[in-house]
Amino acid sequence: MPESPSWLLQKGRSEKARKSLKYFRGLSENDKTTYDEFEKELALMKKTSDESRTEAANESLLQAVRSPEVYKPLIMMIGFFFFQQFSGVVIIIVFAAQIAMSAGVSVDPMLVAIFVGIARIITTFFISTIFERWGRRPAGMLSATGMTISMFLLAANGWYPVIGEHLPLLPIICIILHIIFSTLGLLTLPFLMISEVFPQRVRGSANGFTLFIGLTFSFSIIKLYPSVQSLIGTPNSFAGFALISLIGLLFIIFVVPETKGRTLLEIEKYFRTGRRVTNAQVARRQSQIAMEVAAGNYSSQYELDEVIMRLSKLHEDCEACENE
């Protein structure tokens, strides 16, 4: 696997960047055919890389954060990691056996911890397909909704022991469902979207800072949970996690944009201007691509990539770069 073309261009390795881009576009390194779109894309990447390198040399993350395309996704991702960690995901993973024991389940609590691990592994096989078919926002909303319901049911089971007497498997089911729903969205989406929302010039430093904050949240909730549990009780702790999950659902609905089918430049432009690329626009683009494919209007993977670029707003930037 070669280094990314953008990284190589930032390091001034133009020829290696050309070979890397050929690799990612399905072209042979020995292919001497000149593709206009390839040259346009390479020129655009070089222009963007030069600008990013100049900007990176002249400004730190603290300076860049004044730009809306930097501070808006930064605040959004920090919020996303907050809801990820304080919705009880990590608590269920780390304290699964203790939670099962306090809920009075009829099976070995250690088996519950094993079931949690198995549920995470199985669900992981499907998340990439779900993200690409449904989009980020629908998956996140389903995840937060399922987590809210699961945690409220766990809290209700603690508040009203009669529920557990009639439904002894309810705590196990809720714990496993919580893990499944969290893996489908709130647990995994922040790590996916962090690679999509930041401009190239600050992506490394912004990603590192955001992950530092996210892991600090994780450390904090793990250290605080035993004290909070002793102070307010396990059922009330679950109710708190349910409430945070519910607020997280509202956060996804009103704050998190859809990034499926959008180019990185389109995402950056959204944070800078507030103008979204609608699902209808993406659907029209994909429909035209499907028509090109069905008509057999391309003979190589790269020619198909040309179609995608031509129908993307990225093509406008390619043309502007070429004119310069």
Q: Your description of this structure?
A:
With 324 residues, this protein is an all-alpha fold. α5 (68-86) packs across α15 and α8 packs parallel to α11 (170-183). The two termini are 32 Å apart. The mean pLDDT is 81. The radius of gyration is 24 Å and the shape is elongated. It has helices spanning 5-10, 14-24, 36-58, 61-64, 68-86, 89-94, 96-102, 109-134, 136-159, 161-166, 170-183, 189-193, 203-232, 234-254, 264-273, 279-294, 301-310, 314-323. Pfam families: Sugar_tr. This is Facilitated trehalose transporter Tret1. One of its GO terms (cellular component) is membrane.
Question: Keywords for this structure?
Answer:
2 domains; 324 residues; 77% helix
The count of DSSP E runs of length 2 or more, i.e. the number of strands, is 0
Q: How large, in whole angstroms, is the Cα Rg?
A: 24 Å
Strand content: under 5%
Number of domains: 2
Separation of the first and last Cα atoms: 32 Å
Main beta sheet: strand number and arrangement? none
Tell me the series of helices and strands, N- to C-terminal. Answer: HHHHHHHHHHHHHHHHHH
Low-confidence stretches: none
